[in-house]
Amino acid sequence: ALMRAVAAVSHNRSVPLLLELQDEDSLRYASTLTSVECLIERPFGERLLGQAVLNPGVTEVYDELMTFTNDSSEFYLEAVPEALVGRRYREAQRHFLDDTGEARVLVGLDRSPPDAPYTDFLLHPGGDDVETRLTAEDRLIVMAYERPRLTVAERRAQWGGKALLR
Questions:
Q1: Are 111 and 77 in contact (CB under 8 A)?
Q2: Residue 80: pLDDT band by 50, 70, 90 thresholds?
Q3: Which residues share a beta bridge with 36?
Q4: Taking a C-beta distance cutoff of 8 angstroms, is the pair 114, 42 a contact?
Q5: Measuring CA to CA, which residue among 121, 63, 134, 54 is closest to residue 93?
Q6: Where are the beta strands (DSSP E) in the chain?
Q7: What is the rounded CA–CA span in Å between residue 6 and residue 147?
Q8: How far apart are CA 39 and CA 36, in angstroms?
Q9: Three-state SS string across 23-69, please?
Q10: C-alpha count within 13 angstroms, C-beta hemisphere, residue 50
Q11: Global confidence as pTM
């Protein structure tokens, strides 16, 4: 499977590709394929089974989240809007919840380094006592019906008529 993925990527890097590996040692060899999603089925399935035992019904939630249809929300990775850089994660969550123009939910951050994409995710980071601040290098993990429009205007500017959305 790894050799076929190498051949496919060398032929066309723009095609999304998911590679199922049998063991974690294979990840070392697959790490150079930055455009390929790698999944090791057994540990992934074991974690899902463990969650299902602890939280009955979680498999139905997972199935709904991962089903791609025309009438479902999907996950998107988007750059942090300039107006949210430096703000706390909780403030950004409240901003998206307050915006009634578009149904979007901020669910986490991707803080992966450029040389190792998709390796450092924070889902609902921190508690009330932790100050997780957004940086320009972060990417927001957003759940939305369609690709979100992440423009941010200050509430005062909107109410004062200085900023118009849509």
A1: no
A2: very high
A3: 17
A4: no
A5: 134
A6: 17-21, 36-40, 74-79, 104-110, 121-123, 139-144
A7: 30
A8: 10
A9: CCHHHHHHCCCCCEEEEEHHHHHHHHHHHHHHCCCHHHHHHHHCCCC
A10: 6
A11: 0.65
Tokens, residue 112? 């992966």
Q: How far apart are CA 11 and CA 4, in angstroms?
A: 11
Cα distance between residue 159 and residue 101, in whole Å: 15
> In which band, very low, low, confident or very high, does the pLDDT at 165 lie, cut at 50, 70 and 90?
very low
pLDDT tens digits, residue range 3-49? 888 888 888 877 778 778 777 777 777 777 777 777 777 777 888 88
pLDDT of amino acid 159: 53
What is the mean predicted confidence (pLDDT) over 99-128? 81
Q: Name the strand (E) or helix (H) holding 91.
A: helix 89-98
Reduce the DSSP state of residue 94 to 3 states and report it.
Answer: helix
The residue that leads in pLDDT, 150 or 98, is 98
Query: Is 132 within 8 Å of 122 (Cβ atoms)?
Result: yes
CA distance 106 to 146: 14
Per the DSSP assignment, residues forming a β-bridge with 75 are 143
Q: Which of 76, 101, 89, 93 is nearest to 164 (CA)?
A: 101
What pLDDT does residue 130 have?
64
Of residues 76 and 44, more confidence is placed in 76
